[in-house]
Every structure is written in structure tokens, then in C-alpha cells.
Amino acid sequence: MSEQRKFKISFPSETELVMEREFDAPRELVFQAHLDPEIIPLWWGPRAYATVVEEMDVRPGGKWRFVQRGEDGQTITFFGEYRLISPPDKFVNTFGFEGMEGEPGEEEYSFIDLGEGRTLLRTYSKFKTKEELEGILQSGMEWGANETYDRLEEYLAQ
Amino acid sequence: MSDALTLTFSALADPTRRAILERLAAGRASVSELAAPFHISLPAISRHLKVLERAGLIARGRDAQWRPAQLQAEPLKDVSIWLERYRSNWEESYERLDEYLSEVQKRKNQMDKE
Prior knowledge:
The structure holds two protein chains of two kinds.
Chain A (H helix, E strand, L loop, with lengths): L6 E7 L2 E8 L3 H9 L4 H4 L5 E8 L6 E8 L4 E12 L3 E8 L7 E11 L2 E9 L3 H10 L7 H11 L1
Antiparallel strand pairs in A: 1-2, 2-8, 3-4, 4-5, 5-6, 6-7, 7-8
Chain B lengths: L2 H10 L2 H11 L5 H5 L6 H13 L3 E3 L8 E3 L1 H41 L1
Helix pairs in contact in B: 1-5
């Protein structure tokens, strides 16, 4: 199971971001893992960060707020609002983080049944401006250094 | 966000152009060498190269006959580091989700058997 899974990030335009990932599980389970406050801390975010669900009101208009604390005590807070909940194939929320520029963008999560107990998760994010999309990519930089980053820097330094 | 970075970002938004950059990471190449793996025409590849050149991601040789393209890593650095970090954060989360999903299904199978 350790082989590289298909994981794709693409940009249909300057203000849109699409991520695709397959899972060896039925979509009801994958869907539930995204909207259950007891399951979120088990997987959401890099391993070096402990995620605490401070608020998770899963209904249209309900707010969510996750705080991640690193081993060094540094915290990052992510937040947003649920817009649409349609189990087991779709939900929509907004996604922002504290310190970001602009407003939280909207994300649409689609859970596509591939048969044989497999699911394709497609996350479609739409931003008002390309700066907001770039800001979300930069949010990843808030996390501490990791090996992938070091390797990439080495490669680019060549 | 600087305009130069935005230009870089748009240039990177196309899968063919990203593939061209990956190829160039292995060394400089001519237009026909770059076109070889793709099912698109030489003029189309040339158009992609122009976009990459405008974004400062590649440089072209002066020789009119053979204008090899060469990767210019500098503008690529910021955007690709963000993107790589963003990708690795999500990939790590999804690996953890794989573990959870596999665990929960194992437990369910055991309960079904009992």
C-alpha cells in the first residue's frame, strides 16, 4: 500500500485550483472522514502537527475552525463556513487561515464512486483573485521545514 | 504578490508547459526534441516556449538554426516551492486518511465475520 498514489494538482485558470486523490474506501467513509469532528484530528494536516477541532457546525451557514499546534508550540488556525452538505457525494465550504490576505475562497469537495470500494476525491477551489489563490499556496509555507522542501531547494540550487 | 510571480504562475498552469520544464531540468533541448514526446505540432511547442520565455522560466539560444531552450530556475523557485510544500502537506494528510480508512474497514470486516 505504500506505492505512490495518484495525486494531482491542476490549475484550470489563474483563480481555480483542482486536487484529485483516490482512496481505497467507499465514498460514504471518505465523506464522513471529512465532516466528523472526532475523525478530523486523526488525519487533517501534517503529522508533526496536532489538530484540535474548536468548532465544527456541519450544516449550511455553520462555522468550522481547526487549530494546529506544532512540536515547537507554533499554532496555525484554519477556518471557514459550510455552504452545502449533500452526503455522500458533495459538500462545499469556505477555507481561510489566520493572517491570510483577502477573503476565504470557496471549496467544493466531490466524492466520486469508482466502484469496487474505491473513491475519487476532487477538491475544486475558486478564488476571487489570483492573489488569493497564491496566498493559499503560500499558506503551506507557514508549516515548518520538511524534507521535501529541502530536497526541492537542493534541486533548484543546482 | 509581484507581477513577475503572477506571470510565472500562469505559465506553470499548463500541463504541457510543466512537462517541457521537467524535460529541460534534465538539460537543454531543441524545439523538435521537446516536441517529440507530445502529440502536438512544432508551432504549438514554439508558442508554449514563448510563454515560458516571457515568464523568464527558460532562455533560448541565439543560433537561428538551433535555438536550444534552457531552464532558468530563478523565477521558478518561489512558486514551485510553495506548490511543492502545499502538495506535500496534503499528500501527508491523505496518507494519514488512507491509514484511518484502512483501519476502520479492517475493524468493520472483523465485526461482520463475528
